[in-house]
Amino acid sequence: MTRESGKKRDLHHKTYFKRYAEPPLCNANDVPEPDMIITIPVYNEKFLLNTFKSLESCIPSESVILVLVLINASENDSREVIDTNENTWRSAISFIGYKSNNLHYRLFKINNLPSKHAGVGLARKILMDQAIRIYDFYKKTGPVICLDADCTVAPNYLITLEKKFLRDKWQAGIIKYEHRMKDEEGVDLTHAIVDYEMHLRYYVLAQMWAGFPYAHQTVGSCMVVKSDLYAKYGGMNKRKAGEDFYFLHKIIPEVDFKRINETTVYPSPRASLRVPFGTGRAVNEWLKNGASSTYNFNAFIDLKLSIDYFGQIIDNAYPFDLNRLPASMARFLSDCHIDEAWKRILISSRDSGMRRKNFYNWFNAFRLLKYVHFARDNYFPDENVEDETRKLIRQITGKEKVAGGLQLLVFLRDLEKNI
Questions:
Q1: Among 42, 55, 112, 352, which one is most buried in terms of CB atoms within 10 A?
Q2: pTM of the predicted model, to two decimals?
Q3: What are the Cα distances from residue 187, in Å, to 157, 190, 266, 407, 414?
Q4: Residue 62 burial by CB count (10 A; 0-12/13-18/19+): exposed, middle or buried?
């Protein structure tokens, strides 16, 4: 690292600690100097050791890897949650009585987080902020790797991240994921999790097909970001759900964000009601109601037509003409006061490159999601997830017939990996 880049790192870290950071969990000099840091928030989790064993089973890397674990609960959580946390704490302490040469565990426990903010966002933030403090103490930058306590990983997980972020100097990325089909107790949830993961992949692939520039998966247990960039862009939020989406879409437009397809994280498919949306909630809903729906493909056809038009006005600085857009997008953008926004973009942009950046800072992933919901509520009702997925596949590949269920999901996984 050059002296100049070291100064920028120190400035980003100093500003972050002053304005945004949570209090430290420990003194940074109490841990070995790490090359990579993995963070694992743990809430009401009985199977944390499965994650530890998966990490221990990885092909050893040459790096020093620190694993920060926060077992946490709200001040208002039940006795049952606290007892589960205590049991997990004791089993984790026992497990790390032995450790490999390059995996170093540090366990923390907070069972009284303020109820206003307690949740996965705050727990993740506390851990990631601690990771930044440790890198800062050792006057270095390094990857902050997010993992969850219900996940396992592929054997090449550690060496792949070592290569990408230490040797190849990647800045940030999302690791490929594949939900397991059975939960930790052996219950087969194939049908439920296939539909949910298909929906996630359909949504991102449809954005890619339409030409949206920031189309990426946003799975919290698969995020990796260099410590200086984490600090520069304001760190993790405290949201109780969706923290990964909001965090990543602050960073994706600003850095060279990568898809890490050479290794895999395997999240659990188990049902849960602990957050208002996400895997657990979706599986629970499927078990109650059966087959899942997803966004109507017509919304993405209109999105694609709109993005083609956006490209024309961005390149040529034309006035914005809502009459050139499909009805769903024209009405949505009118409600968003696009005329005023476009005037500001033209004034503040010196060339087409800046116009493009400024436009998609406005029509960003959050606004895109609002458009899709607007189109659903006013134009194109949700449809069966397999039906809409097949329509998308037909547009991307020309393939007319693809088997359903798990075979369709596997096809979608391969398509996303190679697109």
A1: 42
A2: 0.93
A3: 26, 9, 16, 20, 26
A4: exposed
Question: Is residue 409 a contact partner of residue 194, using CB atoms and an 8 Å limit?
Answer: yes
Q: Specify which residues 107 forms β-bridges with.
A: 69
Which residues touch 398 (CB under 8 Å, ≥6 apart)?
Answer: none
Span 35-76, pLDDT tens digits:
999 999 999 999 999 999 999 999 999 999 999 999 999 999
Q: What are phi and psi of 113, to 5 degrees?
A: -65, 145
Cβ neighbours of residue 355 closer than 8 Å, sequence gap 6 or more: 314, 317, 345, 346, 349
- Following DSSP, what letter does each residue of 290-355 receive, concatenated? -S-EE--HHHHHHHHHHHHHHHHHHHHTPPP-GGGS-HHHHHHHHHTTHHHHHHHHHHH-SSHHHH
CB 251 within 8 Å of CB 225: yes
CA angle 144, 36, 27 (to 5 degrees): 80
Q: What does the block give as tokens for 72?
A: 């946490």
Please count the other Cβ atoms lying within 10 Å of the Cβ belonging to residue 242. Answer: 17
Q: Which residue has the tokens 């600085």?
A: 317
Predicted confidence (pLDDT) per residue in 158-177, tens digit = 999 999 999 999 999 999 99
Contact 61, 275 (CB under 8 A): no
